[in-house]
Amino acid sequence: MDTRVAIIGIIIENPDSVDRLNTLLHDYSEIIIGRMGIPYRKKNVSIISLAVDGPQNAISALSGKLGRLEGVAVKTAYASV
Fold first, then answer.
1. Which of 44, 48, 50, 69 has its CA 20 to 30 A from that of 76?
2. What is residue 28's three-state secondary structure?
3. Which residues contact 14 (CB under 8 A, 6 or more apart)?
4. CA 71 to chain centre
5. 76: helix, coil or strand?
6. What is the pTM of this model?
């Protein structure tokens, strides 16, 4: 199975979406290489960076589900390898 390496950038503006977000990350834990989270209290947002390696359809599904959460912005960048 071919896999892709990507980074998913997440900005959370609605703290009520955090529980659902964490559930989704748990559901896709098999493709997550690493996660870095930064609470930015000055602007009342949280920033999460996910490094992933998995099938493109799984990465796209995760990114899409995260982006549908209220108050959550998501962007995905794929490596060329």
1. 44
2. coil
3. 69, 70, 71, 72
4. 13
5. strand
6. 0.93
Torsion of CA 15, 16, 21, 23, to 10 degrees: 130
Encode pLDDT of 62-80 as tens digits: 999 999 999 999 999 999 8
The strands making up 4-12's β-sheet, listed across from edge to edge, are 32-40, 45-54, 4-12, 72-78
Residue type, 50: L
* Adjacent-strand bridge partners of 51: 7, 34
The radius of gyration of the chain from alpha carbons, rounded to an integer in Å, stands at: 12
Note the pLDDT tens digit of each residue in 25-76. Answer: 999 999 999 999 999 999 999 999 999 999 999 999 999 999 999 999 999 9
**Chain centroid to CA 70: how far?**
14
